[in-house]
């Protein structure tokens, strides 16, 4: 196909699927029409991809075609009076922050990495530490331009009555190629964050802190020791924060070390992870109040280039679930007991509550409840067996998993967790596909 070349080195962030694709790298929007037609006509159709920060196979189109959108990274307009920005879909959140912060604006919703594209943030309807206040990323999107494989170009806004806006927000890139986006930014007085950390010894304390903090703080999140057992089960460190009311408007340009090679597979084991978690709880868990730059608060792992290599060449699975409020404590307790008993887990396990702000997308992941996210080094059958056990807990609780983080979600669980699936499928572009979607159709 003209404009496409075979690639075998494109991996999702979890690095578990290793799939060949035909990949194109456009630099200008006027190159897209021909590439979209050619890609859609090939085997397994077409998928637009960004920085490949999804963890599983939702950002891959194995044995099919992909258009890498990172070259379409131009700003089109920015109204400094209103904070409304228009940009091409390949612009990253990091690039938006470089423009927005000096003008007194910030992203209204941001995930745990700034190295994702606008198109990717919409396709996965990403969320952040302020879901109880701001909801998901898609709530702040005014409109986007969508190129379909039938050659049509559509500008789709919030007032869209057809359902295409709701299908595209969180739609995993399956409704067409997002080419440009109009986004509302949030005004800020400072690029600093006022935060407070509070250690807690059991899971019930987390839920009390979350309920108390959501009314008074914009951002809430907790690190949890996923390997603690017995009377330490559910211990962690709760962080609540607000934007600083005064201070500098400074873009962080710090860059830390990179992981140059894949770490040995034996490096992350129960002994090393337990030792890390114990030390982290004792050192980082000291109560404190501080004013910090936005960067280490929102994007701690961005400071380590290629940190996914720490899990070794076999990669890892990230498992992120959400369960409803009525059963959240019981289900989360059962998940933590199961993980601790298996001796598998991560040094960065994140626990937080989602509020009742409705997500605009038909397939958006967040719903009111509690979300737990952990990384598991890929140890083959033993890891998959553990994840199956967690699936059973989440499904029994009436919860669901996050497709952007998934690498092995069973199709039946996907269908059960996303009741609007039947409303979504009529809006799919028949020329678009992904490895994840084909897996869900089995």
The CATH architecture assignment of the largest domain turns out to be 2-Layer Sandwich
CATH T-level topology of the largest domain? Alpha-Beta Plaits
Structural class: alpha+beta
**Arrangement of strands in the largest sheet:** 15-12-14-13-17-18-16-19
Share of residues in helices? 25-40%
Spatial gap, N to C terminus = 28 Å
Question: CATH class of the largest domain, anyone?
Answer: Alpha Beta
Binned strand content: 15-25%
**Biggest β-sheet strands, sense, barrel:** 8 strands, antiparallel
Strand elements, count: 19
The gross shape turns out to be globular
Count the domains: 3
Mean pLDDT: 94
| Number of DSSP helical runs | 13
Please summarize what this structure is.
This protein is 25% helix and 23% strand.
Protein architecture, described:
- The chain has an 8-stranded antiparallel β-sheet with strand order 15-12-14-13-17-18-16-19. It has a 5-stranded antiparallel β-sheet with strand order 5-6-10-8-9. Strands 1-2-4-3 form a 4-stranded mixed β-sheet.
- The two termini are 28 Å apart.
- It has helices at 32-41, 93-100, 118-123, 131-134, 164-168, 203-213, 270-283, 294-298, 328-342, 381-397, 411-417, 421-424, 435-440, and strands at 5-7, 21-24, 46-49, 65-68, 75-79, 84-88, 105-106, 141-147, 153-157, 177-184, 186-187, 192-200, 219-224, 236-243, 288-293, 316-323, 350-354, 369-377, 400-401.
- It folds into 3 domains: 5-69, 2-Layer Sandwich (Uridine Diphospho-n-acetylenolpyruvylglucosamine Reductase, domain 2), CATH 3.30.43.10; 71-188, Uridine Diphospho-n-acetylenolpyruvylglucosamine Reductase, domain 3 (2-Layer Sandwich), CATH 3.30.465; 192-417, Alpha-Beta Plaits.
- The longest helix is centred in the last third of the chain and has 17 residues, at 381-397.
- β5 (75-79) and β6 (84-88) form a beta hairpin.
- With 442 residues, the chain is an alpha+beta fold.
- GO terms for molecular function: FAD binding; L-gulonolactone oxidase activity.
- Its EC number is 1.1.3.8.
């Amino acid at each position: 196909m003209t404009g496409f070349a075979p690639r075998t080195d494109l991996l999702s962030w979890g690095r578990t699927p290793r799939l060949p694709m035909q990949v194109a790298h456009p630099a200008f929007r006027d190159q897209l029409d021909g590439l979209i037609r050619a890609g859609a006509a090939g085997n397994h159709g077409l998928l637009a991809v960004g920085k490949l920060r999804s963890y599983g196979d939702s950002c891959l189109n194995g044995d099919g075609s992909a258009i890498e959108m990172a070259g379409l990274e131009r700003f089109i307009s920015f109204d400094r009076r209103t904070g409304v920005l228009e940009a091409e879909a390949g612009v990253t959140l990091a690039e938006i922050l470089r423009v927005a912060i000096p003008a007194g604006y910030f992203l209204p919703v941001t995930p745990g990495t700034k190295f994702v594209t606008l198109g990717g943030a919409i396709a996965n309807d990403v969320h952040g530490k302020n879901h109880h206040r701001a909801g998901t990323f898609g709530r702040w999107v005014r409109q986007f331009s969508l190129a379909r494989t039938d050659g049509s170009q559509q500008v789709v806004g919030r007032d869209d009555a057809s359902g295409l806006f709701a299908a595209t927000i969180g739609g995993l890139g399956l409704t067409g190629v997002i080419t440009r986006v109009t986004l509302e930014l949030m005004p800020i007085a400072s690029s600093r964050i006022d935060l407070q950390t509070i250690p807690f010894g059991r899971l019930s304390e987390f839920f009390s802190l979350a309920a108390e903090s959501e009314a008074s703080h914009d951002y809430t999140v907790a690190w949890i020791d996923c390997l603690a057992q017995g009377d330490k089960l559910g211990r962690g460190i709760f962080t609540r924060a607000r934007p600083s009311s005064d201070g500098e408007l400074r873009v962080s340009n710090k860059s830390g070390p990179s992981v140059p090679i894949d770490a040995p597979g034996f490096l992350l084991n129960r002994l090393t992870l337990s030792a890390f978690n114990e030390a982290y709880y004792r050192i980082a868990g000291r109560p404190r109040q501080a004013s910090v730059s936005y960067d280490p608060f929102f994007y701690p792992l961005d400071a380590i280039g290629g940190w996914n290599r720490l899990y070794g060449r076999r990669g890892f699975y990230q498992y992120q679930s959400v369960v409803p409020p009525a059963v959240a404590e019981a289900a989360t307790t059962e998940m933590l007991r199961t993980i601790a008993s298996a001796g598998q887990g991560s040094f960065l396990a994140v626990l937080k509550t989602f509020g009742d702000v409705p997500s605009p997308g038909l397939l958006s992941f967040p719903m009111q409840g509690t979300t737990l996210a952990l990384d598991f080094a890929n140890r083959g059958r033993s890891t998959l067996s553990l994840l199956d056990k967690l699936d059973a807990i989440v499904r029994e609780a009436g919860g669901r998993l996050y497709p952007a983080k998934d690498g092995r979600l069973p199709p039946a669980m996907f269908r059960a967790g996303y009741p609007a699936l039947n409303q979504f499928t009529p809006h799919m572009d028949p020329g678009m596909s992904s490895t994840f979607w084909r897996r869900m159709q089995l």
